[in-house]
Amino acid sequence: MINIMILIPVVIRKPPRKDWIIVYLYNAITNIMVDCLLTKHNVIKYPVRFLANLFRTQILFDLLVYPTLTVVYNQVTYKDKPLDSFFKLFYFTIPMIIVETWAERKTKLIRWNRGWEWYHTFIGFTLKSFHTRLLMGLLRKMDERK
Prior knowledge:
Layout: H1 2-13, H2 17-40, E1 44-45, H3 59-76, H4 82-106, E2 111-112, H5 118-145
Antiparallel strand pairs: 1-2
């Protein structure tokens, strides 16, 4: 976790900073929204979590880990075409799914309910990360036209 906290300023420092801040904030906000919806409907539970008395979600992952990885993904694919950036996304989502599947089976950090499986999370991570990348590409194009 400390590695991620150290990585955030390093990742955001790389130009164009505005883009990375937008990616980070957009990802963090949408993570909270999606996770709150999933926990409210008991699709996913987090028996052990940071600040459990304040949040029903895995706040460290939602606000630190996943947004930082999304910024790194956007930086890696900054000049790529959509198809290239889509395939590079698997370098990020596959390790996240492996870790989450291990955590679900071996720890009390996460519990999947109501037929939720690893592939639901994989599809969700992939679509959400690619959506963020496409949105940033669209914002860049709009900014260039000004």
